[in-house]
Amino acid sequence: MSIIRPDLPLIDLHRHLDGSVRLETILDVGLQHNLPLPARDLEGLRPFVQVTTPVPGLLAFLEKFEWMVGILVNYDVCRRIAYENVQDAQREGIDYIELRFSPMFMAQPHGLDPAGIVEAVADGVAAGQRDFGVRTNLIGIISRTFGADMGWQELEALLSQRDHLVALDLAGDEVNFPGELFVEHFKRGRDAGWEITVHAGEAGGSTAVWQALRELEAKRIGHAVRAVDDSALMDYLAENRIGVEMNLTSNVQTSTVPDYASHPLKTMLEHNILATINSDDPGISNIDLPFEYKVAVEKAGLTQQQANQAQQNALDLAYLSPAEKAVLLSRKQAS
Asked: Hey, which residues are catalytic here?
């Protein structure tokens, strides 16, 4: 019996587009533009780009992004990786995906204009949807690591393609750049009509999740691993139907949790929280979404029913209209 229910759409709500760059693309672009790659063949490149053993903390994991964004020499490459993200989702059997990205993070290595990156990513995703038939939405990230002032510049870049994005996210160094620095940024994002999802409770504690909920008005939380330390927060998440975008393998690889068996996904589902299974940065983690469902059941201790519930939760939480969700569901049930 398949862990993934065939009559429900397979959905990834938390995938970083700039953490999902193919190894082959890094090599191809690197050689084409004579970039200082650490190796000049795929297997030599792999240990620099992908995690093979757990690393000591989130920031060490984030260092792997250097080689992914390091190839973004122009807008055509940005368009290419966005397009390939949609193709890769189709190859995984994904029916709907939300891809998130930080234009400032992508712009920095080669001094590109963040607004130009947002336009290129939107173009690439639109072409990918047309060619591969995977419904895709984009989430813009403010990278907290650059600070609040740069956050305003990043927000303006995202707003330049406001109608091509569905939500605003906050990601990066949660410990040194807390959500309190970005309250006004997120008010502007809400005023623009975007949904709000925030990385919180991964490197930071449960107080970071409370801040995201109360001050940034997030309706979904990325990771939220430390929420299990606070029973009142767990109750709040369940009672208010706050979505939790969980990422098993990346949490093990960043040492956010010691192993799969220690991951709070099962506890969240038992508490009737709308927890979901996602891939985070599959290009770095060297996994795909079906793999995450498999390890959820086999190593994180989920029952088949709980895995199915997580799959249903993803449909409930998707940034789609009820009519769009109905279309997704009917297509699966007809196939």
From this structure: 202
